[in-house]
Automatic annotation (TrEMBL):
Residues 427-764 form the TonB-dependent receptor-like beta-barrel domain. Belongs to the TonB-dependent receptor family. Residues 1-23 form the signal peptide. It comes from Flavobacterium muglaense. Residues 114-232 form the TonB-dependent receptor plug domain. It is found in: Cell outer membrane. This is TonB-dependent receptor. Pfam families: CarbopepD_reg_2, Plug, TonB_dep_Rec_b-barrel. One of its GO terms (cellular component) is cell outer membrane.
C-alpha cells in the first residue's frame, strides 16, 4: 500500500515538474505604427488560453508551452502568429492588412472593424471634417455620406441645419437624428425665441472632432431604440496619446459674399413698368404716380427721379461682404498612465446678411488615467460661449433681405448720409433697426462626460458613464424710439432658457475567442436620462432714452412668464455579435425603452434588431484571388422609435389664467392615454466589395423603412373648442438605393489621387392616413404621394389675345383623366399634386490629390427631384400688382395682342396671375462645388530647422460654384418662419442665400 501511494506521488511530481519545465509565462508589448495598442488579443494557438493588452499595450499570458504559437490580433490590423521558441518576452508590431477594409468604427456602446460590420454606417474622419473650416459641425458632413441630406435653412450665421437620414419618417414628430457626443446623447433642441431657429450644435468646435459615424440602418440605430428612427450621429472627440507632447495650431481667416444675387429693376425700369401698370388699370390720363407731388415724388423724398438722381440698390445694402476667422490651439500627449487632450478655440463670423454675426469661444479637455491594470477612469469636458447678433425672421420687415421689396426711387439715408429715413419707403426701413435697436443672443454650454471602466476578467469588463449637458441661452431684444416701436417709445424683451440633461449608462462587455475560429462579444446594460427646461420671459415698453436698452428701464411691463418642464427615459439594452471563422457574422440587439411622454399603458416600447453577414472572399474558392480583395453580403432588420413630441402629449392639461381679474384654471389640452410609440421597421440588404488590393472598394445598399402609428398633431373641428390632438395615425414608407465607390486612381512615390463617390435615391410615400388628406397652405399629406407634396393650381401661361393669366381647370373627367382646358378664372381651377420638397436623387464626389508636398481636394454635391415654392413671388415677380420692386424678368410682360410670354399684363392693384399656383414653383435641382482646398506642406528638412514637426499653408473655398436653373436666391435656402408646422415644407420667402467663402489658413504641429 505504501509503495502504491509512493508511486502515485512520484508520478504526480513528475507530471508537475514536466509541466513546469515545458510551460512558462510570456510577456511583451503589442503596437502598431502609431504606438501601443490597448485591447489587442493574444491567444495560445490550439487552446482557449488568451489575454488582452492593457492600456499601455503590454500583456502577460501564463502557462504557455515552450514551443507554443501565439496569435496576435486587433480589429483593423493583420493577424500575426509567432512561435515563442522558449522566449519569455515576445514583442510584436501589427501592420495594416492592405487586403482588408481595416477602418475601425465607433458604434453604440463600443467599436467594431468595418470588415466585420453587418450594419450600414457612414464614417467621416477628422481629416475630412477639418478640410472645411466652417463654424457649424453639420456643414462639414455635407455630401460625405450616401443617403444623408444636410441643408442649412438659409445664409444666417446661426441658421438651423436640417439633417435627414434616409428620408422623412414622421409627420408631426421630430425629424432630426439623435446626436451622441463621446457616448452621451446631447441636447438638440432649438431654443430660439422667434420662429427662426438657432442651430443647437453651433456651440461645438468642429476642430475638436476625431470622427463622426452616422448610424443609418435599424441594426445599428436600434441600440438607441426610442430615438433611432431618424438615424444616430455619433461624435467622437480627439484624445491624447502617450509619448511626446504634441502642440498644434490651426489658424485661418477669409472673406465671404452671397452665392447668388437676384436681378432687380433699377429706377428707370421701375418707373417704366409701374407707369405702364397704372395706365393699364386706370388709363394713361391718370398721372397719380408721375405728377408733381405724386407717388414717385413721395418715394424719392425730394430727389429728382426724373433725371436719375436716385437709384438705390437695396439688395447691396442687405447682402454685404462678410468675413470669417477661426483659430484653434491644442496640446496633447501623456505617459504610460495618463493621456490628455486640451484645446481652445475662437471663431468670428461676420455674416453676408447685414447686421448678422457670431463670436464663439470654446474649450475642451479630455483626460484618461490608468489607475491600475484593471481600472481606468476618464473625464471629457467642453465649455463654450457663443454670442450671436441676430436679425429678424424672413417674415419681418426689419429683416434686411425684405429691403429688396423697397422701391429703387427711395433713398436709404437722409441727406446727412447717416440717419436712416422711414418716411419715404414703401415698407419699414430695416436700417432703422440696425442703428436704433439690437438683438443679442448669448449661449453658454457645458458638456461633461466621465467614465470608470473596470476589467473584472480578461474577457469581461464593466463601464459606467455619467454625463451632464447644460445649455444656457439668453436673448435680449431692443427696438428704440426711432424704429417701428416709435408709438410705444421703444420696446424691449429678455428671454432666458436653461436646459439640462443628465445621463447614466452602466453596461458590461464580454469579449471571448473560442478555439481560434469563434469570436463572441456581448454588451448589456441600462441607461437613464433626465431632461429639464426652465424659461423666464419679460417685456416692456416706454424708455426714457434709447441708450437704456434693458427691460429694467421700461416704464411699463407689458408681459412676462416663467415655465418649467421635465421628461426622462429609462432603458435596458443588450447586443451580441458572433463571428465564425472570420467569415460568418451574426448580430442581434434588443432595447427596452420607457418614456414619461407616453400614456401609462404604452409607456414602454421594445426595439429589436438583427443582422447577418457573409465574407465570401474568405472562402477557399476566393481567398487567394488576386482581383477580389473583399466581397461581403450583409442584411439587417430592426425596429426603431420616435418620441419627439411634447413632454405631456398624452395628458389632459390645464393652465392658470385670469378671468375678470380673478385667477382661474382653463383646460388647454385633451388627453389621449392611448398615445404610443411611433415605430419604424427597416430592412437593409447590402454588398461590400473591394478589388485590386482594395484600390477599388465600395458598398451597394437597398433599404425599406416603414413607419407605423405616426405621431400626428391632428387638426380638430373648431366647434370642438380644441385645435389639435396628438394621435397615432397612419403610416409612410421610405425606400431607396445607396452606392458608394472609393478608388485609388494613381499611387506612386510622389503622386496619389483618390476619389470617393456616393449616390442615393429616395422614394417617399404616405401609405395610410385614416383621417384623409391633411392640407397646410401649399402642402398636402395624401396617401400614395410624397409627404408634404405641393398642392397647387397649375399655371398655364398668358392669353396672347389680352394678357390674362391662365390656369388649367384640372377638373376630373369620367375616365379618371384631368380636364386640361385653360381658364382665366382662378376659381374654376382645381389644385393638383405639383411636386415634392424632397430630392429623389443625391450625390457627392470628393477627389483628393497629393503631389510631393502639395495637397489638393474638392467636393461636388448634387440634388435632383425637389422643388421650391417662392411665397414672395406674388410680391416680387407679380407683374407690378403691388408696388414692391420687381425682378427684371417682369419686363418681359405681355403688352400687345399676339405677344407670347409667360408674364401677364402689368395691372397695378389688380390681380392677374399673382394667386398661389405653379407659376411660383420651381425645380431646385443643382450641382455645387461645396469645397475646394489647396495646401502646401513645408519639407521636413526645412521645418525641422525651425523646430516644427509640420507646417502647412492652405487656401480653401466653400460654395464656390453653383450650377442650377433655379431663379431664386439659392436652391437650398428656405423660409425660416414656418413656426410649428412640420407639414409646410419647401417654401422660400425672402430667404438669404448661403455664403461663398475663401479662406487662407496655417497648420503648425510642434
Amino acid at each position: 500500500m505504501k509503495n502504491t501511494l509512493l508511486k502515485v506521488f512520484l508520478s504526480f511530481l513528475t507530471i508537475l515538474c514536466t509541466s513546469l519545465t515545458y510551460s512558462q509565462d510570456v510577456s511583451g508589448s503589442v503596437s502598431d505604427s502609431n504606438g501601443p495598442l490597448p485591447g489587442a488579443t493574444i491567444l495560445v494557438k490550439g487552446t482557449t488560453n488568451s489575454t488582452q493588452t492593457n492600456m499601455d499595450g503590454n500583456y502577460t499570458i501564463r502557462n504557455v508551452g515552450l514551443n507554443a504559437t501565439l496569435i496576435f490580433s486587433y480589429i483593423g490590423l493583420k493577424t500575426q502568429e509567432i512561435n515563442v521558441k522558449g522566449k519569455s518576452v515576445v514583442n510584436t508590431l501589427l501592420k495594416v492588412d492592405s487586403a482588408e477594409l481595416n477602418e475601425v468604427l465607433i458604434i453604440g456602446f463600443g467599436k467594431q472593424s468595418k470588415r466585420k460590420l453587418t450594419d450600414n454606417i457612414a464614417s467621416i474622419s477628422a481629416e475630412q471634417i477639418n478640410q472645411i473650416p466652417i463654424s457649424n459641425l453639420q456643414g462639414a458632413l455635407t455630401a460625405k455620406a450616401a443617403g444623408v441630406q444636410i441643408t442649412q435653412i438659409n445664409g444666417k450665421v446661426e441658421g438651423g441645419v436640417k439633417i435627414r437620414v434616409r428620408g422623412i419618417s414622421s409627420i408631426s414628430s421630430s425629424q432630426e437624428p439623435l446626436y451622441v457626443l463621446d457616448g452621451m446623447p446631447i441636447i438638440n433642441d432649438n431654443e430660439s425665441v422667434s420662429a427662426a431657429p438657432i442651430n443647437p450644435l453651433i456651440s461645438l468646435n468642429p476642430n475638436d472632432v476625431a470622427s463622426i459615424e452616422i448610424l443609418k440602418d435599424a441594426s445599428s440605430a436600434a441600440i438607441y431604440g426610442a430615438r433611432g428612427t431618424n438615424g444616430v450621429v455619433l461624435i467622437t472627440t480627439k484624445q491624447g496619446k502617450s509619448g511626446k507632447t504634441k502642440i498644434s495650431l490651426n489658424s485661418s481667416a477669409g472673406w465671404s459674399e452671397a452665392t447668388h444675387k437676384m436681378s432687380w429693376l433699377n429706377a428707370a425700369q421701375y418707373v417704366e413698368l409701374f407707369t405702364e401698370a397704372s395706365a393699364n388699370t386706370w388709363g394713361a390720363s391718370d398721372l397719380w404716380l408721375t405728377e408733381p407731388g405724386g407717388s414717385f415724388d413721395k418715394l424719392s423724398n425730394g430727389l429728382d427721379w426724373r433725371n436719375g438722381q436716385i437709384d438705390t440698390d437695396w439688395q447691396d445694402l442687405a447682402l454685404v461682404k462678410g468675413s470669417v476667422q477661426d483659430h484653434t490651439f491644442s496640446i496633447s500627449g501623456g505617459d504610460s498612465k495618463t493621456v490628455f487632450f486640451l484645446s481652445g478655440g475662437y471663431n468670428n463670423t461676420q455674416g453676408i446678411v447685414r447686421g448678422n454675426s457670431m463670436d464663439r469661444y470654446s474649450y475642451r479637455g479630455n483626460l484618461d488615467h490608468k489607475v491600475s491594470d484593471k481600472l481606468r477612469v476618464g473625464l471629457n469636458t467642453s465649455l463654450s460661449k457663443s454670442h450671436i447678433t441676430r436679425i429678424g425672421t424672413d417674415n419681418s420687415f426689419a429683416t434686411p433681405l425684405q429691403a429688396v421689396a423697397q422701391s429703387p426711387l427711395s433713398p436709404a439715408y437722409l441727406a446727412d448720409g447717416i440717419t436712416p429715413n422711414n418716411e419715404s419707403t414703401l415698407y419699414y426701413n430695416f436700417l432703422m433697426q440696425e442703428f436704433n435697436g439690437s438683438w443679442d443672443v448669448n449661449i453658454f454650454r457645458t458638456i461633461m462626460n466621465s467614465y470608470l471602466e473596470y476589467k473584472i476578467l480578461p474577457e469581461l469588463s464593466f463601464k459606467t458613464e455619467l454625463g451632464y449637458d447644460n445649455n444656457n441661452q439668453t436673448e435680449e431684444y431692443f427696438s428704440g424710439s426711432l424704429t417701428q416701436s416709435a408709438s410705444t417709445n421703444g420696446y424691449a424683451d429678455a428671454n432666458a432658457i436653461q436646459s439640462d440633461k443628465y445621463s447614466i449608462n452602466n453596461y458590461f462587455t464580454y469579449n471571448k475567442t473560442f478555439k481560434e475560429d469563434y469570436d463572441l462579444e456581448f454588451v448589456g446594460g441600462m441607461s437613464f436620462e433626465e431632461s429639464a427646461r426652465k424659461r423666464q420671459y419679460v417685456a416692456g415698453t416706454g424708455f426714457p432714452s434709447d441708450d437704456l436698452q434693458t427691460v429694467e428701464s421700461a416704464s411699463e411691463i407689458t408681459s412676462g412668464l416663467s415655465s418649467r418642464t421635465k421628461y426622462n427615459f429609462l432603458s435596458y439594452f443588450g447586443r451580441a455579435t458572433f463571428s465564425i471563422k472570420d467569415k460568418y457574422l451574426l448580430k442581434g440587439s434588443l432595447r427596452y425603452d420607457g418614456s414619461s411622454r407616453f400614456g401609462a399603458s404604452n409607456r414602454y416600447g421594445v426595439f429589436p434588431a438583427a443582422s447577418a453577414g457573409w465574407i465570401i472572399s474568405q472562402e477557399d474558392f476566393l481567398k487567394d484571388n488576386n482581383t477580389i480583395s473583399l466581397l461581403k453580403l450583409r442584411g439587417s432588420f430592426g425596429i426603431t422609435g420616435n418620441a419627439g413630441i411634447g413632454n405631456f402629449a398624452s395628458l389632459g392639461l390645464f393652465n392658470g389664467s385670469a378671468y375678470n381679474k380673478t385667477s382661474a384654471i382653463n383646460p388647454s389640452q385633451l388627453s389621449n392615454q392611448d398615445l404610443k410609440w411611433e415605430k419604424t421597421n427597416q430592412v437593409d440588404a447590402g454588398i461590400d466589395f473591394g478589388f485590386l488590393n482594395n484600390r477599388v472598394s465600395g458598398e451597394i445598399d437597398y433599404y425599406v423603412k416603414k413607419t407605423n402609428d405616426l405621431l400626428l398633431n391632428e387638426p380638430l373641428p373648431g366647434t370642438s373648442g380644441w385645435s389639435t390632438l396628438t394621435r397615432n395615425v397612419g403610416s409612410l414608407t421610405n425606400k431607396g438605393f445607396e452606392f458608394v465607390l472609393n478608388t485609388t486612381n494613381v499611387k506612386t512615390d510622389n503622386l496619389s489621387w483618390k476619389t470617393s463617390l456616393n449616390l442615393a435615391t429616395l422614394n417617399n410615400k404616405v401609405t395610410n392616413l385614416p383621417g384623409g388628406d391633411i392640407v397646410d397652405e401649399r402642402n398636402i399629406v395624401r396617401v400614395g404621394e410624397t409627404i408634404s407634396s405641393f398642392y397647387l393650381v397649375q399655371y398655364a401661361g398668358v392669353d396672347p389675345a389680352n394678357g390674362d393669366a391662365l390656369f388649367y381647370k384640372n377638373t376630373p373627367n369620367s375616365d379618371g383623366s384631368l380636364d386640361k382646358t385653360k381658364t382665366n378664372d382662378y376659381n374654376e381651377a382645381n389644385r393638383v399634386i405639383s411636386g415634392s420638397p424632397y430630392p429623389t436623387f443625391m450625390t457627392g464626389m470628393t477627389n483628393t490629390i497629393l503631389f510631393k508636398n502639395l495637397d489638393f481636394s474638392f467636393t461636388f454635391q448634387g440634388e435632383w427631384g425637389a422643388s421650391l415654392y417662392n411665397e414672395a413671388g406674388k410680391f416680387q415677380s407679380g407683374n407690378a400688382r403691388y408696388e414692391d420692386n420687381q425682378t427684371t424678368d417682369q419686363l418681359n410682360r405681355w403688352q400687345n395682342s399676339g405677344d407670347i410670354t409667360n408674364v401677364p399684363q402689368a395691372r397695378m392693384h389688380r390681380t392677374n396671375g399673382q394667386q398661389a399656383s405653379t407659376r411660383y414653383l420651381e425645380k431646385s435641382d443643382f450641382i455645387r462645388l461645396r469645397n475646394l482646398s489647396l495646401g502646401y506642406t513645408l519639407p521636413k528638412k526645412i521645418s525641422q530647422k525651425i523646430s516644427v514637426d509640420r507646417l502647412r499653408l492652405y487656401m480653401t473655398g466653400v460654395n464656390l460654384l453653383t450650377f442650377t436653373n433655379y431663379t431664386g436666391y439659392d436652391p437650398e435656402s428656405s423660409y425660416d418662419n414656418n413656426g410649428d408646422s412640420n407639414i409646410r415644407k419647401g417654401i422660400a420667402f425672402y430667404s438669404a442665400p448661403p455664403a461663398k467663402t475663401i479662406i487662407i489658413g496655417l497648420n503648425i504641429d510642434l
